[in-house]
Amino acid sequence: MTNEELKSKITELLATATVEEGGQSLTINVEPGEWRLLAERLRNDPSLFFDYLFCLTCIDWKTHLTMVYHLDSTKFRHVVVIKSKLPADNPVIETVSDIWKTADFHEREVYEMFGVNFRGHPDLRLLILPDGWEGKRPMLKDFEDPVNMIRL
Amino acid sequence: MLRLKTTDRQKMSSTSNNLETSEASPSGRSGGASSFPGQIHETPGGGIVLSKLDDVINWARSNSLWPLTFATSCCGIEMMAVAAAKYDFSRFGFEVARASPRQADVIIIAGTIVNKMGPVLKRLYDQMADPKYVIAMGACAISGGPFFYNTYSVVKGADHVIPVDVYVAGCPPRPEALLHALISLQKKIKNGLTREQIQTPKPLSGGDKLHQI
Which of A97, A128, A130, B40 has its Cβ near the most Cβ atoms within 10 Å? Predict the structure, then answer.
């Protein structure tokens, strides 16, 4: 599918989804509460068949966080980017680790680095950080290195 | 007091064979990298070599240092280059890279040491047999380098974990720089100036002391 076809198809699947212009790939914004529903449709719709989550990450904008999901279809080779805005205090979003297995570790990593809670995740433990890690999530912009810190 | 490892004895036994060809320096310990420390007194029907046992042991040890195969980031690539044909540290006796710390004499800390790697590095060092030497290769191993500020995960210098004999600057250092560091370590050993050699000698029967601790 071309980006235009994807755009009309996805807005058909979820009417509240909005399209962001200017990116290399088609970019869709969804409310965190509706992400789970859209994810299942993107994965299971036979004409979309987004079976490959090739990137899952988070951005800290200081005022809020943005979850970013890059999806690819190994069958049709089309790509879509899904973004979802989360509040900076108590960011929560539904897990997609049962839809795309790869999201399991990536969500754990976003959890420990940005403090996003993935509701329904089967095993939301620290992944890379040492056990017993306390304090701020290290990828947040207001994280301070306890040993050597330079403030810009 | 000096204790000989098995490898030292092997190195010693090869000493006598090489004596005729090696150039003995009259000043003893200084001189070229391979020169035997001692003086030859010519006598009819042969000669007598005078030397100090300490110097001979240091000479033997310094010329066959076995590095541990240990690298944590890009410095490791340079270290591999130094091991390979173009730079070839076997010219200086470093070619026997060991995958086990129990058989290694020197650990080249080639790369960033993160907080999670710190205990591993300490354990590797503890498992190495005495005498053992440490080279901190590159900015990360010296001070944390590019990760000195504003990081959550990097040890700010490997010498927070284990003691270091030779530091070599660079990011990563040129292969020549690592060769220079290796030769510097050899010189340090020959002059009896490594951290381990200038420590107060351990008592020969240390068993009782150990129990007290």
Answer: A97
Q: Report if residue A102 sits inside a domain.
A: yes
- pTM strictly above 0.80: no
Task: Tell me if A142 is assigned to some domain.
Answer: no
CATH number at residue A13: 3.30.460.80
Residues B9-54 pLDDT 10s: 444 444 444 443 334 444 444 444 457 888 888 888 888 888 888 8
Nearest residue of A to residue B117 by CA position?
A130
Q: What is the mean pLDDT of residues A87-107?
A: 94
Q: Which domain holds residue A40?
A: 3-119
- Please enumerate in sequence order all residues whose Cβ is within 8 A of that of B36, keeping only pairs 6 or more positions apart, or say none: B15, B18, B19, B22, B23, B24, B25, B49, B51, B56, B59
Domains in chain B: ranges and CATH: 6-62 (no CATH), 75-186 (3.40.50.12280)
Q: Which helix (H) or strand (E) holds A8?
A: helix A3-13
Binary contact (A145, B152; C-beta < 8 A): yes
Q: Give residue-wise pLDDT tens across range A26-80.
A: 999 999 999 999 999 999 999 999 999 999 999 999 999 999 999 999 999 999 9
Contact assignment for A150 to B156 by CB distance below 8 Å? no
Residue in the structure block whose two tokens are 């030769």: B183
Specify the residue for token string 């509040």: A87
Task: Tell me if chain A has a CB within 8 Å of the CB of B187.
Answer: no
> Residue B172: is the preceding peptide bond cis (ω within 30°)?
yes
CB contact under 8 A, A145 and B116: no
* pLDDT tens readout for residues B157-189: 999 999 999 999 999 999 999 999 999 999 999
The whole-angstrom separation of Cα B120 and Cα B108 is 14
Supply the ipTM of this predicted assembly. Answer: 0.74
Tell which residue, A149, A116, A112, has the closest CA to residue A134.
A112
When divided into structural domains, chain A yields a total of 1
Alpha-carbon span B186 to B62, nearest angstrom: 5
